[in-house]
Amino acid sequence: MTAEFIKLYPENPERRKILEIVKVLRGGGVIIYPTDTVYGLGCDIFNQKAIERIRMIKGIKGRHLNLSFICYDLSHISEYTRHLDTPTFKLMKKALPGPYTFILESSSKVPKILNVKKKTVGIRIPDNNIPREIVNELGNPIITTSIHDDDIHDHATDPEIIYENFRNMVDVVIDGGFGEVHPSTVIDCTGEEPKVIREGMGDVNIVA
Hints:
20% strand, ten-stranded mixed β-sheet, 6 helices
C-alpha cells in the first residue's frame, strides 16, 4: 500500500478531493492532514480497525490512549461531552476555531468509540478549512493526534517529507502547505476553573 498524495488549499478546499478523502475515511482509511498547528494523523471515530492502526503507527497502548476529536463547530460536541456550563461554553466560543484543545468530561459514547475506559475527551476545532470541511462532509468528528509527540522538527512540517516518511503506513497524505512547529494549547475544563496544561500556539491569557 502506498498512500495517495493530495494537494488542497486551506482557503478553498476542492470539494471533489474532499469527497475522495471522506470515501477513504468511510472505508476505514487513515489520513495525515494539516491543522492550524502541526500535521495530524487521523481516522473516522467510528472505525475501530482504523483507530487500532493509529495505535500501531504511534506505538500507543490502549490505556495510554490520548486522542482528541476534530469537530466542525460547537454543535458537534454535545454528543461526545457531558453538559457544558455557561463559562466553559463561552470560553470555547471565544477561542474556536483556533489552536486549542479543550479537555472536557466525556459522554458515555466516548469509551465505546475508543474501546477504552476514558472519562475525558479532547475537542479541537482548528482554524483550517481542510479538516473542518472533511468533518462536515463525513458527518461526524475524526480522531486527531499529532504525527510526532516529541519536539516537532522540519521533517514533520514539510508535507512532502511527511509523505516520504508515512506513505507506507497511511492511505492519504494531504498537502495543505507547511505546518507549524508548535502544537495546540491544551486547556483542561474538567475542574472548577479552566487550567492550561500545555502551552502551545494558542494564547494562554484566554483563560485569565
